Amino acid sequence: MIDKGEARKLAFAARKAAFAAGQGQAGEILADFLADHRGRALAGYMAMRTEIDPLAAMLAHQGPVCVPVIIAAGQALRFREWSPGCRMEMGAFGAEIPAEGAWIEPEVLIVPLVGFDARGYRLGYGGGFYDRTLQGLRAKRATLAVGFAFAAQELPEVPIDQFDQRLDVMVTETGVRRFG
Question: Which residue ranges form the domains of the chain, and what is each CATH number?
């Protein structure tokens, strides 16, 4: 099996090519899937560089929406309330975050990623932020982790360790996959 660094190189290249081709109906597929979770607090994210963009699903969500805020290295994410047109500022690692707003604890998270596999494991950017966050949230209550990526980002197998949290669902421009 390849290591995480090599897997990231492969997945980034696949994502870049897929991004250039366009995201198709991915946002609408994600919004349709999330419709069953109306009223629940949803964490989205502000897409950066070649990430697939969840904005259509965030706009369609009937309930509170928030985005991740990196507090510090080695810590779980916190989530600040987001709404269309709210004032945004640059956060850590170049991600836009709301300049103000309530802190929300999400029940459903749209999780960005670099790569994923058929088992439901994701390859992130290497900071462990989502793994820490999901572990903490899941220790309190059922929390749905919805991976969102281009189908081309699927890897034969994501290298994992004891800290990696599995996704519940993967949404791509080709459809929805649930993991047991």
Answer: 4-178 (3.40.50.10420)
